[in-house]
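Something for you to look into today, if you have time. Could you write out one complete protein record for me, on any chain you like? Leave the record below and I will have a look.
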Amino acid sequence: MMIYPLFPEGRDRALTFSYDDALDADVRLAGIFSSHGLKCTFNFCSDDGPHDGTFPSFDVNEVYLNHGHEIAVHGSEHAFEDRMPAEAVIADVLENRRKLESITHAPVKGMAYPYGTFTPELKQRLRDLGILYSRTVNSTHQFNMPSDFLEWNPTAHHRENIAEIGERFLNNSELRAPGTVCYIWGHSFEFDRTDGWDVIERFADQMAGKDCVWYATNMEIYDYNQAFRSLRFTADCCYVQNPSGRTVWIKRGREAFEIPSGDVVRIG
């Protein structure tokens, strides 16, 4: 009997966003997400960024954190970290984390690769620095949970016909395998410069308020996946124990089961 992950409240799919560089246009973008009940991870440079920007002058708590969004690492100076010596990477990522954690008063362990570039060696350095996931810029046009969260390939950039992608994600029955994730990324300044805000506003309208969708930040999806992976099943898969600190939902056959934190539940 097949056993699959479900998301909180038994939802079978999740939607997440990731937007880079933390420039002023994030205020409008975060407002669109918040008003539609969507969640986004915003990736910060903590020194001068790639567009002659600086650390945001607006209230980070008011724009992001108070509405359930996440802030994550994007490199202190948005450098090509795959080309830097280990010492420079360590200094860059830790400085970025320290600056962000002085705002969140909590660990910041997510990341998006500056310019999307990485190597196996860089992934290992990030792991050693406490980074738990990092997003690439390699679109899959699929809805898969990553096998390696330090090489988390998004579904699509928002320029890549996201209306059609959203339709597939919501309505195509062949893609309804439990535990699927639609992951959209980009830069908020692109809506000012070329794309037009109607692109993301229409997509937010299209995706909001769906009972089958869990709206989550990148880190929430990572944490939930870790909780699912920690489940302990008996050899006959009739009982499951949840040693994690959060409730996990699973699907066995056609039936959904809620596995509360610390409990053992009969599922077969």
In short: The first strand starts at residue 3 and ends at 6. The mean pLDDT is 92. Residues 111 and 125 are 13 Å apart (CA to CA). The domain at 12-219 is CATH 3.20.20.370 (TIM Barrel).
